[in-house]
Design a protein that fits this description.
It is a single chain. By secondary structure, the chain is of the alpha/beta class. It has three domains: 148 residues, Rossmann fold; 131 residues, no CATH class; 71 residues, RNA polymerase sigma factor, region 2, helix turn helix motif (Rna Polymerase Sigma Factor, Chain: A, Orthogonal Bundle), CATH 1.10.1740.10. The chain has 17 helices and eleven strands. The radius of gyration is 20 Å and the shape is globular. Its EC number is 1.1.1.267. Keywords: Isoprene biosynthesis, Magnesium, Manganese, Metal-binding, NADP, Oxidoreductase. Its cofactor is Mg(2+); Mn(2+); Co(2+).
């Protein structure tokens, strides 16, 4: 029995993880669940999975949640609150695996804490790796932690690597990664119409069920840009050796091109339980609960290069990883601020990329030698992006 801590239990990845856990109760037991605001879903998860600990990150909701748990059939659950508690539960002795599914920069510190503690880190939070880069990978190496990617694309790449491959190492026979993308909801929308895109349109992803922030990232293809940066670190590849490929059917989740001309692809129905189950069972496999892919239903698969005029956020991600240093941190911070502003109708959809680019122009690619430096750059970039947004009128 392995103990699992799920950081971000009430989001789509957390819910899917608990679905897989329930199918394999003989393999996993839930030690800790965490949530930010969605305490009603968290309460139901407590009743079903009976964790030892829960963390309510929003401290103003914690007291009420404690009272609710105290009066429930699971009154022995320990309720913690605040950001520090996230790191506490991620490093508990009884925790073997940590599902890092908190969206955004908020997931950095608990995910890094899990890596430093030598846990098996199931990495669904791409921002943690984008922000801290070499610091995170060094923590994994020094602690002996296992790092298993959960993003469907990175999990696909991992599955296509040679047997015994370890994340962070170089597969010398692999010469190129083909990182697939659905293209989001605006793949064919006239560029001149993107100014008028609403938040509701942007979060309506054609293939994946994701949270609002990640759905907007998919619409701008910043999601793919962050995945590009993550892939460079996970697989020790140059950005010039990673090609983004739009594949609207989302059947092939990514490919690895080898020096002998072979291209290996991982395929499956678009359901996050597949990569979650793969990582949880690794190096073995078990049932994910997903219907098998019927290849005869696919009929055809299309591939195209992304238009960087339509998706300037992808261009900015390439620029950030090539610049190195703190630039990926700045990119991510500015994007989080800009996406939040768009979702609150403070800026237009097309202004997301403008905010990010103008924020990046205010920084130089200083080395990211310490966590303190990364966190300082993150805050400075957020402040700079917010100042830019305040000058705009929707």
């Amino acid at each position: 029995m392995k103990g699992i801590c799920i950081l971000g239990a009430t989001g789509s990845i957390g819910v899917s993880t608990l679905d897989v856990v329930a199918r394999h109760a003989d393999h996993y037991r839930v030690v800790a669940l965490t949530a930010n605001n969605n305490v009603e879903v968290l309460y139901q998860q407590c009743l079903t999975h009976h964790p030892e600990y829960v963390v309510v990150a929003a401290e103003d909701k914690a007291d009420a949640f404690r009272e609710k748990i105290a009066a429930s059939p699971v009154a022995d659950i320990k309720v913690l609150a605040g950001a520090d508690a996230l790191q506490q539960v991620a490093t508990l002795d009884q925790v073997d695996s940590v599902m890092a599914a908190i969206v955004g920069a908020a997931g950095l510190l608990p995910t890094l804490a899990a890596a430093k503690a030598g846990k098996t880190v199931l990495l669904a939070n791409k921002e943690a790796l984008v922000m801290s880069g070499d610091i995170f990978m060094q923590a994994v190496k020094e602690s002996g932690a296992h790092l298993l990617p959960i993003d469907s694309e990175h999990n696909a790449i991992f599955q296509c690597m040679p047997g015994g491959y370890v994340a962070g190492s170089n597969a010398k026979q692999a010469r190129r990664i083909l990182l697939t993308a659905s293209g989001g909801p605006f793949r064919t929308t006239p560029i001149e119409a993107l100014d008028d895109v609403t938040p509701e349109q942007a979060v309506a992803h054609p293939k994946w069920d994701m949270g609002r922030k990640i759905s907007v990232d998919s619409a701008t293809m910043m999601n793919k840009g962050l995945e590009l940066i993550e892939a460079c670190l996970l697989f020790t590849m140059s950005p010039d050796d990673i090609q983004v490929v739009i594949h609207k059917q989302s059947i092939i989740h990514s490919m690895v091109d080898y020096v002998d001309g072979s291209v290996l692809a991982q395929m499956g129905n678009p359901d996050m339980r597949i990569p979650i189950a793969h990582a949880m069972a690794w190096p073995d496999r078990f049932d994910s609960g997903v219907e098998p892919l019927n290849i005869f239903d696919v009929k055809q698969m299309d591939f195209e290069e992304p238009d960087l005029q339509r998706f300037p956020c992808l261009r900015l991600a390439y620029e950030a990883i090539k610049a190195g240093g703190i630039m990926p941190t700045v990119l991510n911070a500015a994007n989080e601020i800009a996406v939040d502003a768009f979702l609150h109708e403070r800026i237009r959809f097309t202004e997301i990329a403008n905010i990010i680019e103008n924020t990046m122009s205010q920084f130089s690619a200083d080395k990211a030698d310490s966590l303190e430096q990364v966190l300082r750059a993150d805050q400075q970039a957020r402040d700079a992006a917010e100042r830019l947004i305040e000058t705009l009128v929707v």
